[in-house]
Amino acid sequence: MASSPSYLIHTFGCQMNAHDSDRMEEVLRANGWSQATSGEEADLIVLNTCSVREKAEQKLRSEVGKLAPLKAKNPGLVLAVAGCVAQQEGEKLLSRVSHLDLVIGPDNIVELPALALEQMAGAPPRTRTVFDLDAPRFLAAAPREGEAPVSAYVTTMKGCDERCSFCIVPYTRGPERYRPSDEIIAEIGRWVSAGTREITLLGQTVDSFRDPALPPPASDDPDESQFPMLLRRIASEVPGLLRLRYTSPHPRHATVALARAHAEVEILAHHVHLPVQSGSDRILKRMIRRYNRAEYTERARRLLAAQPDMTMSTDIIVGFPGETDADFEATLELVRDVGFTGAFAFKYSQRPFTPALKLPDDVAESLKSERLARLFEVVEGQTREHLAKLVGTTQRVLVEGTSKAGAKEGRAFVEGRTVRNEIVHIEQPEGRVAVGEMVEVEITRAYKHSLFGGVTASALEALPRPNERRVAPDKRRHKLPLLGTA
Ligand code: 5AD
Q: Which residues are in the MTTase N-terminal domain (predicted)?
């Protein structure tokens, strides 16, 4: 073993998992661990897993399998599975995977360094998957100046009180728990002081937020969520923040107050990712989404009306049990009707512990594939149309890093995002556009999933010369390609 123990973390799945991995790194570092340069050298390897869809879970199994030879060569290596598969399977994982040492749930991250040391000292394999229900813990990020990404995630709530019949998340992440607003705002303040310009608030149903420090809302409160209030507080109390996003809201809490916040809070993105899952009332009911198509459409339209250039993306499941051609056509119709400019779409897969297990998975795999392809075609068409309309306009782009585009021709590009969320590649004028800068860009071309443009003459005039500024970090954390399909 080296003088300080070393770790490697492999992350699968959603932004919440990426966020959890960052917190694991922080607690390990705070306890004297350092990052290993290779698996051979590591004392601890963590697979931070996802189980939201069957495919994601299969991936974990193959990754764990791949680590068996490494463990055989180095029996002192501690192999840990964290995240949703860990929470879901617990003990069972240990009995099924003989070379596994540690199974650790999302609420037990702080215990990771101690548990890993125990394993290194020869303790028997261990499972820790206990929800922190009585005293919810939100590990605060410790951003370091000069290393902070342009865009960072901040957790505002965790868990989910919905009971969507297809979804394993309430089981793997537990009931909803909220973080006090003061804590959220303090963390955002630290990010911004360290150089971050954009924050994405993170939660399984991010818009159901209630401040645990405030009295519970009256039951007849038409807007029981205090989420819009949180958005307003962040905007007024963290003046250096340039942009604010959130993911993922549940349509039930997409209230009038939320739409009003989008109209009035200047730093709020002109984009919302609002998962709909299906456009058929029959299927929505079977999914236990607790809204119908008309209600979703009304909420979506209200948000879209908050800004003249507001866009919306969504999540859709195709081939849910009992989905007929007519149900699927209703979904396509809704996609056209709302005019989503992006969608993540998935084939339904049965998940353990979910209510939909009672329903036979009766849509043929080939039909699911066909529907997925048709859905992508519609969404891609809308994305293309939307991007084409932006050619000739001027957009404010928050620069997030250098871009690989143009490298072949020996040209230097940077890339960033618009207030909605389109990716823009920008020709770098004499190295003058720094990461973290908000620049005005004239859009000259539209690609399939991104845009291209040049800094406007007046914006260029205002930029400092390269030797007049400190070098900003080129670090991106954005895993939210809200444009296009995934
Ligand atoms: N099958 C397919 N897709 C699913 N999702 C969640 N559960 C399932 C499932 N059992 C999708 C939903 C959700 C996204 C994160 O994953 O669209 O919004």
A: 5-121
Beta pairing, strands 198-202 & 243-247: parallel
Spatial distance between the Cα atoms of 444 and 378, rounded to a whole number of angstroms? 24
Residue span of the structural domain in which 47 resides: 6-128
Q: Which CATH number fits the domain that encloses residue 282? A: 3.80.30.20
What is the token pair recorded at 242? 């340039």
Residue nearest to atom 1 of ligand 1 (CA): 348
Query: What are the C-alpha distances in Å from 221 to residues 73, 273, 275?
Result: 61, 25, 24
DSSP 51-65: -SSHHHHHHHHHHHH
Three-class secondary structure of residue 428 per DSSP: coil
3-state secondary structure (DSSP) of residue 206 = helix
Identify the three-state secondary structure at position 151: strand
Asked whether residue 486 is assigned to any structural domain, the reply reads no
- The DSSP call for residue 149 is -
Check whether residue 88 and residue 124 sit in a common domain. Answer: yes
Q: Are residues 219 and 310 in the same domain?
A: yes
Q: What is the dihedral of CA 395, 398, 399, 403, to 10 degrees?
A: -60
Which residues are registered as beta bridge partners of 34?
Answer: 6
CA–centroid distance, 316 to ligand 1, in Å, is: 8
Kindly give the distance from the C-alpha atom of residue 317 to the centroid of ligand 1, in angstroms, as a whole number.
6
Task: Say how many C-beta atoms besides its own lie within 10 A of residue 3's C-beta.
Answer: 7
pLDDT of residue 221: 65
Rounded to the nearest integer, the mean pLDDT of the chain is: 93
Q: Which residues are annotated as a binding site?
A: 14, 50, 84, 160, 164, 167
Tokens of 133: 């229900």
90, 207: one domain: no
Note if the pTM is more than 0.85: yes
Distance 346 CA to ligand 1 centre (A): 7
d(CA 294, CA 280): 10
Let me know whether 190 and 238 are in one domain. Answer: yes
SS3 451: strand
Beta bridge partners of 44: 7, 78
pLDDT tens for each residue of 219-272: 666 566 899 999 999 999 999 999 999 999 999 999 999 999 999 999 999 999
Pocket test for ligand 1, best of 12, 17, 52 (most atoms within 8 A of CB): 52
Contacts (Cβ under 8 Å, ≥6 apart) of 467: none
Kindly report, residue by residue over 68-94, the tens digit of the pLDDT: 999 999 999 999 999 999 999 999 999
Query: pLDDT tens digits for 151-199?
Result: 999 999 999 999 999 999 999 999 999 999 999 999 999 999 999 999 9
